[in-house]
Design brief:
mainly alpha; 12 helices; globular; DUF1156 domain-containing protein
Length: about 220
């Protein structure tokens, strides 16, 4: 229990630093503490590994620090995918313990083991994405962002505005900071960064006109 608490403190420090957007700035631990578990994991994994393959052992330790299991990350939240023989095919605490042990062994021997890959917004296409979560849990911020990216890509500004307003996201400072953090983690010139910047600019605007809300996004905005 003590070790879990220490890991959470470290997690809040790192996530707070990423949200601040400046590694030299004092991290905002309070903001990190308000971030939901799946989003915290996503941000931490994205910051450290991007979308490249990452060691399953270290990712599982990250998950435990966020109060999640390996199976929840893959099956419940659809955030990661595992390669063959990874913890995603094992059960509960046993899977976590074995992968953690494998990770320590890999660190000592310099060998590569099972891998984990973070899913991009394009790969996350569940119909319930951003609309509802399992067992009535709050919808994670990462799901809300990815839902908005799909809506923006589809080109319907009305649905984008409706989603923002129905979920009170325009004035939610933590949500805006999270979007900005994702922008800074996205490669320059990528479609992901373009969509996120368009969403950020749209939220920062004073509001679209009634005619704009009923229309479609232009090709320039959708790109």
């Amino acid at each position: 229990e003590f070790l879990t608490h220490v890991r959470r403190l470290v997690l809040d420090f790192v996530v707070g630093r990423v949200l601040s957007g400046d590694e030299d700035q004092v991290p905002d631990d309070s903001a990190a503490d308000r971030l939901d578990e799946p989003t915290s994991y996503y941000l931490l994994h994205r910051h450290d590994f991007g979308f490249e393959e990452a060691p399953a052992g270290s990712c599982i330790l990250y998950a435990v620090s966020c109060g999640l299991s390996d199976r929840e990350l893959a099956d419940t939240w659809d955030i990661v995918s595992f390669t063959k023989g990874s913890a995603g095919e094992q059960n509960g605490e046993e899977g976590i313990a074995e992968e953690a042990a494998d990770y320590e062994c890999e660190e000592e021997n310099g060998a590569s083991g099972s891998k984990v890959k973070l899913k991009s917004w394009v790969q996350r296409k569940r119909k319930s994405l951003g609309l509802e979560s399992p067992n009535g849990k709050p919808v994670p911020l990462i799901d809300r962002v990815h839902c908005l990216m799909h809506l923006w890509k589809a080109g319907d500004l009305h649905k984008v505005d409706e989603y923002l307003d129905d979920n009170a996201l325009r004035k939610q400072e933590l949500f805006k900071r999270f979007v900005q953090a994702l922008i800074e983690l996205s490669p320059r010139g990528s479609e992901e960064r373009s969509l996120l910047e368009s969403l950020s600019n749209h939220m920062g605007a004073k509001g679209a006109t009634k005619d704009d809300r009923q229309g479609k996004l232009g090709l320039r905005d959708a790109e």
